[in-house]
């Protein structure tokens, strides 16, 4: 096993322990018999007259003599590490303590399994407990480790709201495709990578590139740096394309094209243009999608549609103002009168000979009506001049058509009223509904000149939509 590095403060503890054992150097140090040259592991006999002369018990019992040493010299019996250093109940011998410290220095602090192998009589748990109790939590540890240990840990986390804060990073959106489709496309969603990336050969520019040669001059270094710059630009283009595909969910749209999209799928919830003009606008603005996110691009299209609607509404209000109309009620009466007049003209054209019939758009009739000015005198008549013609009029070109929902468009098309007239009637009815909610008992007002059956159909639509009460 790889040894664990000993901390700096443990090294200081080792130095202190070495000083303690140095006091017992004559006892714990390894000795050998001067006569038989064998290592002395137990009790040894030290000559009191000859300097540095030691004998083992076997040679001493035989009365060995060597050189100036005689068997009649005085002697001392010395125990070589078989005594305990720490007080009871510790039963560790001095030589075991020495082996323990040497093993920890060799194998590292915490590697108790390897340390215990150097002490066959001790288990791994015993070695760990003995070292912690006597060398860390005991007197040696208290003398070595200061009470106020300065922390060595430095906080590298970014504060909240910083440039690299995790709270500001947006997680990558999951791609709603099956595992089979992922394998067919070679797409790895967890890494957001492909088996074959865009410009897959870009890495060939730097695959064989090496720098730092002894014979390189400035020209070669500049050439290699240019290659690295070329590679980084191609890599940025690859990341840009991957970001566009992820942001606009191109993978999901490609996979869902051949199967019905689920209701929960974000692709199925995406807004689709309802008219040909909206489709043309999206096609024209598609080139700008590479410079915007999907949300920004969708917001841009919505703003352009809203601008178009506001321009149409402003144009309609200017037409009312040119005819001297300044109130919404008058606008509805004006639209109803114009619509009835246009229907009478259509009926007359159909009843006339085929040679004299010339179909003209509604806008032409409205312009002639504007040139006359004022409001038709038939506005005072209340629903008694119902038209014989039941054919629906094309209202797609009339102002305010963009402001209606699909159901409202079908309703206006079926009963043959203009979108502006419908919007005016809707405004009046909703105002009456607000008054009724405040306690008023007034009934809904019908616009002058508007067929009551048409008004009832519109009121039924409002009631079904939940805008007014059914009573």
Automatic annotation (TrEMBL):
Q: Where in the cell is it found?
A: Nucleus
Keyword Zinc applies: yes
**What is the protein's name according to its record?**
Putative transcriptional adapter 2-beta
One matching Pfam family: ZZ_ADA2
Membrane-spanning residues: none
Domain spans labelled ZZ-type:
28-83
Q: Where is the composition biased (Basic and acidic residues)?
A: 383-393
């Amino acid at each position: 096993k790889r040894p664990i590095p000993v901390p700096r403060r443990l090294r200081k503890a080792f130095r202190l322990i070495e000083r303690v054992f140095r006091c017992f150097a004559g006892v714990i140090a390894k000795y050998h018999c001067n006569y038989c040259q064998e290592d002395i592991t137990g009790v040894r006999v030290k000559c009191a007259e000859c300097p540095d002369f030691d004998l083992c018990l076997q040679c001493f019992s035989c009365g060995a003599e060597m050189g100036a040493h005689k068997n009649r010299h005085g002697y001392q019996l010395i125990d070589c590490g078989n005594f305990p250093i720490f007080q009871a109940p510790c039963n560790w011998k001095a030589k075991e303590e020495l082996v323990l410290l040497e093993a920890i220095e060799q194998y590292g602090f915490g590697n108790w399994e390897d340390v215990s192998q150097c002490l066959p009589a001790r288990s791994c748990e015993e070695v760990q407990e003995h070292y912690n109790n006597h060398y860390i939590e005991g007197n040696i540890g208290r003398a070595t480790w200061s009470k106020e240990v300065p922390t060595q840990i430095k906080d590298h986390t970014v504060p909240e709201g910083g440039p690299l804060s995790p709270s500001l990073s947006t997680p990558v959106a999951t791609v709603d495709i099956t595992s089979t489709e992922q394998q067919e496309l070679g797409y790895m969603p967890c890494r957001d990578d492909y088996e074959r990336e865009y410009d897959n050969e870009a890495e060939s520019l730097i695959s064989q590139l090496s720098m730092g040669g002894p014979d390189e001059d400035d020209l070669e270094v500049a050439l290699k740096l240019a290659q690295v710059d070329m590679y980084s630009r191609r890599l940025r283009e690859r990341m840009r394309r991957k970001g566009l595909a992820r942001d606009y969910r191109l993978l999901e749209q490609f996979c869902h094209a051949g199967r019905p999209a689920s209701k929960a799928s974000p692709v199925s919830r995406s807004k689709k243009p309802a008219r040909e003009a909206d489709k043309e606008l999206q096609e024209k603005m598609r080139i700008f999608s590479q410079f915007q996110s999907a949300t920004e691009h969708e917001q841009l299209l919505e703003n352009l549609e809203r601008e178009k609607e506001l321009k149409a509404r402003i144009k309609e209000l200017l037409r009312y103002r040119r005819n001297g109309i300044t109130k919404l009620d008058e606008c509805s009466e004006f639209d109803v009168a114009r619509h009835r007049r246009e229907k009478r003209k259509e009926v007359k054209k159909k009843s006339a000979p085929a040679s004299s019939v010339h179909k003209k758009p509604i806008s032409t009739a409205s312009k002639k009506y504007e040139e006359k000015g004022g409001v038709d005198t038939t506005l005072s008549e209340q629903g008694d001049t119902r038209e014989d013609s039941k054919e629906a009029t094309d209202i797609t070109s009339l102002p305010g058509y963009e402001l209606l929902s699909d159901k409202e468009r079908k309703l206006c098309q079926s009963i043959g009223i203009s979108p502006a007239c419908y919007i005016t009637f809707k405004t009046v009815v909703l105002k009456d509904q607000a008054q009724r909610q405040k306690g008023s008992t007034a009934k809904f007002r019908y616009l002058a000149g508007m067929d009551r059956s048409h008004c009832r159909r519109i009121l039924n639509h409002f009631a079904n939509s939940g805008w007014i009460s059914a009573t």
